[in-house]
Amino acid sequence: MKKARVTVVGAGFVGATAAQRLVEKEIADVVLIDVVEGLPQGRALDMMESAFLEGFSSKILGTNRYEDTADSDVIVITAGLARRPGMSRDDLLFKNAEIVGGIVTECAKYSPEAVLVMVTNPLDVMTWLAWKKSGFPPERVIGMAGELDAARYAYFLAEATGASPAEVKAIVLGGHGDRMIPVPQHATVRGRPITELLDAAKIEAINQRARDGGTEIVKLLKTGSAFYAPSSSTVRMVRAILQNTGEVIPACVYLKGPYGLNEVYCGVPVKLGRGGAEQVVELPITEEQRNALRASAEDVRLNFLKLRV
Ligand code: TXD
């Protein structure tokens, strides 16, 4: 069987770590591209030199030329600036819009059938912008954020209950940022709802820590943002798409109706497969959560409108 081909744009922390995970797990051959000369080539060569040690046969090519990305099945875009302490994700808006706009046009030209997975912040707005710039159908332009937020939420719940993270199921809704909405009534630990295991105050404290999960890491690192869990979340989405697993993963997708949201990109659980975002899953949520989701989506819309695309 022909190996899948994934382009990762941006050979920085998230991009290079995602590339490493993709080849080590034999999910795809990877093209790693960056604007900085030598950076993707150096990282790719270093990773290839670990192939013998790690025992993988997938290949990785480092390049600065978009021609080399042709016919990719999935394109992951991580290029752009990352947050520094004191910066919100929205502070990155105009700078990253400029970077992402140019990249998407190039990628779409060489891989017109690809599924685009956006990672660059502010995530929801960049995903919307990528859809506009690519000319792709919306189901083939998806953003990674909910999976990461849910993984953080699951980790904090595991920590609070003494369970292993693998025994926790958690889901979040909404845009990537302070308005993200944890949905504790659909979170379980070893199959039991967390509302039976933790009191309301503890759950609210964990909800808040999950909302602030990215900021907590930025404060600790001081010179960059999280990349281990973000690259893992990205790779899980890429695998679901390439291997057509039909897994339901929270992701930023274009909504036309579900959850009462219309013509806006926002985070919801979605079935992923070879066609990209194949079906939005509508969970029962409270009125308060529905209002919070609407507010989060309107925030995304306002920021997207600022770009005047
Ligand atoms: O949940 C999420 N979606 C996120 C998003 C989780 C973590 C990080 N998130 C965002 O991803 C973060 O706020 C940034 O916007 C991106 C990338 O974060 P990373 O930590 O990988 O940033 P780096 O290490 O600075 O890497 C960015 C790379 C760097 O190598 C630049 O040279 C490159 O992007 N870059 C470009 N590549 C190609 N083309 C252009 N124009 C370009 N400009 C910068």
Overview features:
309 residues, alpha/beta, Rossmann fold, L-2-Hydroxyisocaproate Dehydrogenase, Chain A, domain 2, 2 domains, 3-stranded antiparallel β-sheet, 41% helix, binds 1,4,5,6-tetrahydronicotinamide adenine dinucleotide
Q: How would you portray this structure in words?
A:
The protein is of the alpha/beta class and 309 residues long. The protein folds into 2 domains: 5-143, Rossmann fold, CATH 3.40.50; 146-306, Lactate dehydrogenase/glycoside hydrolase, family 4, C-terminal (L-2-Hydroxyisocaproate Dehydrogenase, Chain A, domain 2, Alpha-Beta Complex). 41% of the residues lie in helices and 20% in strands. It has a 6-stranded parallel β-sheet, sandwiched between helices. A 3-stranded antiparallel β-sheet has the order 7-10-11, with helices on one face. β13 (262-273) and β14 form a beta hairpin. α4 runs parallel beside α5 and α6 packs across α9. The longest helix has 20 residues, at 287-306. The protein is globular, with a radius of gyration of 19 Å. The termini are far apart. 50% of the residues are buried. The model has no long low-confidence stretch (mean pLDDT 96). 1,4,5,6-tetrahydronicotinamide adenine dinucleotide is lined by residues 9-15, 34-36, 39, 78-83, 92, 96, 99, 103, 119-121, 123, 144-145, 148, 176, 224-227, 230. 1,4,5,6-tetrahydronicotinamide adenine dinucleotide (TXD) binds next to α1 and α4.
